[in-house]
Amino acid sequence: VQLVESGGGLVQPGGSLRLSCAASGFTFSNYRMTWYRQLLGKERELVATISSDGVSTDYGVSVKGRFTISRDNTKNTLYLQMSSLEPEDTAVYYCNADWFVTGDYWGQGTQVTVSS
After folding, report:
1. Which residues contact 88 (CB under 8 A, 6 or more apart)?
2. pLDDT tens across 31-43, in order?
3. Other Cβ atoms closer than 10 A to 95
């Protein structure tokens, strides 16, 4: 089982980034997928979540209206489009796959830094 995040980096305030999470080793379409983020020394925060079929989404209050979660079950990939980025969005972003049958899996994370 692997979840590999990519797309992080340094971006100026107001800029955009798209994160990807490539999944392998399990049946991606069975799993709810979620993006979390964590700043060193702080608790992990839910950013956005999407149902296994991609129909239902939900967002953390701090990112609603700025971030969009999506998935492509034909490519076993999860996405997070981030716009209007703020310094407060700086964190390590993790993808999580969850299914009641197997439990959940985590990626290794990708760093996003928003700074001028």
Report:
1. 62, 114
2. 999 999 998 889 9
3. 28
Residue 66 φ then ψ, to 5°: -115, -30
CA 83 from chain centre, in angstroms, equals 13
Answer for the pair 89, 83: CB distance below 8 angstroms, yes or no: no
Q: How many other C-beta atoms lie within 10 A of the C-beta of residue 58? A: 12
pLDDT tens per residue, range 76-91 = 999 999 999 999 999 9
Place of tokens 């980096």: 9
Token pair belonging to 88: 């407060």
Q: What is the pLDDT of residue 40?
A: 82
* Dist. CA 105–CA 46, nearest whole Å: 15
The two three-digit tokens of residue 22, written as one number: 């490539």
